[in-house]
# Entry
Amino acid sequence: MFRSAWEWYLQRVTGGLLLVLLVAHFWVEHFMSAPLRHGHLTYQVIQARISNPAWQAIDIAFLIIALYHGLNGLRNIILDYGRLEKRGVAVLTMVLVVVGAVWAWWGIRAFSRL
Amino acid sequence: MFVELNITLRVSRHPARNGKAFDEYRVQLEERMSVLDALFRVQREQDSSLGFRCSCRVGMCGTCAVYVNRVPRLACSTLVRSLECDVLTIEPLPHYPIVKDVAVSLQPFFEQWRRAKPAFRPRKPEARDLARIPKDSKYRRLTPTKRDCITCGACFAACSIVGMNDHYLGPAAINKAFLRVLDPRDAAREERVKVLDRSLDGVWRCHTQFNCTAVCPRHIDLTDSIVRIKRALFWPGRLLKP
Ligand code: SF4
Ligand code: FES
# Structure
């Protein structure tokens, strides 16, 4: 597969995954947990859930997938407008990779504070 | 029976004349007259300063493309009657520098055309025998309807991505590269594929809107060529094999 074909492919795959993960996320956060339904929602209830390694794995995957999809989508919009030259595209890609990496690290680090 | 049409022609003027961007002319046309005939009638009978381009007058050279009622069309091959309207608005094709009135320069189109490396590069330049293309080859199966481009530039004018992105190859150049990439006799496939795969201005910028296909006077399915190139970049083995 050629390089830009990979970018295109991952954008579709992450888009599909986001559809599932977003619906699941909203469902879990707003409707599913029993304390939420019965009005006993506390910090401890949420902490217990996000201390679970399985939930952590899902949330971290969600974060990375959303970051790739969002930042690559932004890159696509900027490229569509065609105001950049070759060097500009390289700089833009680097900046977005750094933003994505820092953002992902920031999000993942939050779990270590639990 | 001899039918006459009474039409108002609104023609874009560049540079604007007397502060007006459009001039209006009433013309009487016969039933089988084209938009180009209408322009000639105005030029001969009412306003000799009107500027437009044409050459073959039979839909072969691609010189006369203009924006007719906001759709890129060949002026010589579009019958006024077929447009079913009393007022025809004729403007220069969008996405090109205007030379005069409705005549444009196709320079941006040919710059992209050149980038797609349109010239055939033979695999065996010294070969004396004729290269045969097998009947069941992909080239024979997929390209017969895609070889008739007359470089009129209508697809480039209709493409909204070209309108936003000056670097984008555009439909006709991609179609030309598609023909070469599939041609088993061609030796420059890798170079062409590199240009097509560029994220800034290659096939990935296409949003599959079909505007190009809708306006091509040769009925070339340009969007199909673009999508097939995308597929080939995704699964190189499937399309790029001779
Ligand atoms: S592909 Fe069709 S619309 Fe585009 S330049 Fe060729 S003939 Fe004209
Ligand atoms: S004048 Fe040649 S295509 Fe119209």
